[in-house]
Amino acid sequence: MPEPEFNVICPSCGSEVSPYVTECPYCGNRLRKRAPDLKKEKKALEKEERREAKKRERLRAQYEGGGSSANWYDAPSDRPVATMVLVGIAVVASVIAASGISGVSVWMTENLIFARFFAPVTEHPWTLVSSPFLQGTFGYGFVCLFTAAVFGAGIERRYGAIWTTAVWVFCGALGVAAEALLARSAISFGAYAIAVGFVLAWTIVVVNREDLRDYDTLGLAAFGFVLCLLPIATDEARIWTLLGGIIGGLICGAVLTRVRQR
């Protein structure tokens, strides 16, 4: 990391003066238009130090482990057990619901997925939590659950299983609730809101506490692009569910920036 400049040479008289003055005290020559922003320079130096420390940590992990320390979304390398369990439950529940097993599939569809024509959310409030675990189609489920797995793992490695589960439940419930309150003919598979919420929460945490340039920003943009186009590609992804996921992700991201990481 480059060392900060401690003095400057006056081009008029050749004297060494402080870099934090606007005029030479010896000859009065104007050195700069205005004094530098000390707080801004200090913040830039601290940010650069964090980047260098993170780079050294990665190099140390490569040296000790014989390979790359983590994927592009990683923080401290612990297995994201809660994320894997939540996604696994969603996959198994979706397969059972779509299997056509006599009585089971129909019951799951009518009681675990929020649909206004089955019952209002006030009669089946548990659908705020259960609906995100059931996916309408394979493509919709793959995009939503894969995105949730990637970014949920990044959040869990930083904050642990409890906070990851809380983000999953909150964003999913908010997406289903938004569909229930704002859509006239509503059926909501809330995994879309979970995927969007995880992406936004992860991004807010990284921007505030780390450096987004250390990650694959093109990959992040690709995830965002696919999620934004999902309502055009499939009926299961709905605009109001997207809105709920955005609000949930912004709230969760703001809360996580004030929580101590592991």
How would you describe the overall organization of this protein?
By secondary structure, the protein is mainly α. It has nine helices and four strands. The chain has helices at residues 38-65, 81-98, 104-112, 127-130, 138-159, 161-182, 191-209, 217-233, 239-256, and strands at 8-9, 16-17, 114-115, 187-188. The strands form two sheets. A two-stranded antiparallel ribbon has the order 1-2. A hairpin with a 6-residue loop joins strand 1 (8-9) and strand 2 (16-17). The chain starts with 7 loop residues before the first strand and ends in a 6-residue tail after the last helix. Mean pLDDT is 78; it is low at 62-77.
- SSE string: EEHHHEHHHEHHH
Percentage of β-strand residues: under 5%
Task: Give the overall shape, derived from the CA principal axes.
Answer: elongated
Helical residue percent band:
55-70%
Report the major sheet: 2 strands, antiparallel
For the largest beta sheet, what order do the strands appear in spatially? Answer: 1-2
- Overall SS class: mainly alpha
Distance between the termini: 27 Å
Number of strands: 4
Low-confidence stretches: 62-77
Oligomer: single chain
How many DSSP H or I helices? Answer: 9
Rg calc: 25 Å
Produce the secondary structure layout.
Layout: E1 8-9, E2 16-17, H1 38-65, H2 81-98, H3 104-112, E3 114-115, H4 127-130, H5 138-159, H6 161-182, E4 187-188, H7 191-209, H8 217-233, H9 239-256
Antiparallel strand pairs: 1-2, 3-4
Helix pairs in contact: 2-5, 2-6, 5-6, 5-7, 5-8, 6-7, 6-9, 7-8, 7-9
